Amino acid sequence: MNNLSTRKLTPEILDSISHDDPGAIRSRRDLRRINRFMGSESWILQNIPPDTSSITEVGAGDGNLLTKIAGARPGVPIAAYDLAPPPADLPAHANWIQGDLFAQTPDIQGGTLIANLFLHHFTEMELSSLGRFIRSFKAIITSEPHRAHIPLFMGKLATPFVHPYTRHDMRVSIEAGFRPGELPAALGLDPADYRITETTDWRGSIRMVARKK
Which of 62-66, 154-158, 205-209 is modeled with the greatest confidence? Predict the structure, then answer.
């Protein structure tokens, strides 16, 4: 039985320190390595519908995934949302919207929405509110931490090789992650309206593709 109440939403260090803090810079470098290990970015790129009219990424972070998406889809309008300022090498056809996502209206709607290691930051109530934003898209692609014992164990194995900020945030991210069925329910994705597929990966992710029928 799925139970979102067992998630632990401990604050992550990267959410509360300056974007240019030396530890934050090192931790973001760790996160890029972790992302490569998890394989989520390549999986996301493979699952973007070939006929999508637009692409929107929420929680775009340092813009690394956004840059890959822009390179793979040079003719498709792209929007990105994050609290951080836009990266210096922002692709020319991408629009970066800086600020609180909950105070925004989607810049482009009806295409594909992408969230990579972002939605686990929010409570069930916040996810329900965010669902109204997300449900304006025809396709929804997410990759989030899988809340399970094996990812926690693998995270412990990685601790000697990462910055202390990363050690802390990696553990709390997994504890705030999802189990099958939880995220679609929290976002209000009705199976009558969406074809929903969820998979878990041994490297610690739970992945969802939802397409409107």
Answer: 205-209
CA nearest 186: which of 110, 135, 148, 149? 135
The predicted model gives 108-120 an average pLDDT of: 90
Calculate the average pLDDT of the chain.
88
H or E stretch covering 55: strand 55-58
Contact 209/197 with Cβ under 8 angstroms?
A: yes
Nearest CA to 12 out of 173, 128, 204 is that of 173
User: For residue 196, what are the β-bridge partners?
Assistant: 210
The reported pTM is: 0.89
Q: How would you class 129 by CB atoms within 10 Å of its CB: exposed for 0-12, middle for 13-18, buried for 19 or more?
A: middle
On the 0-12 / 13-18 / 19+ scale of CB atoms within 10 A, 201 is middle
Q: Of 153, 168, 152, 109, whose CA–CA distance to 134 is shortest?
A: 109
> Would you list the domain boundaries of the chain?
4-212
More confident residue, 196 or 100: 196
Strands 205-212 and 194-200: antiparallel
pLDDT digits (tens, 9 = 90+) for 130-153: 998 899 999 999 999 999 988 888
Tracing tokens 């601790």 back to the chain, one arrives at 159
What is the fold, at CATH topology level, of the domain defined by 4-212?
Rossmann fold (3.40.50)
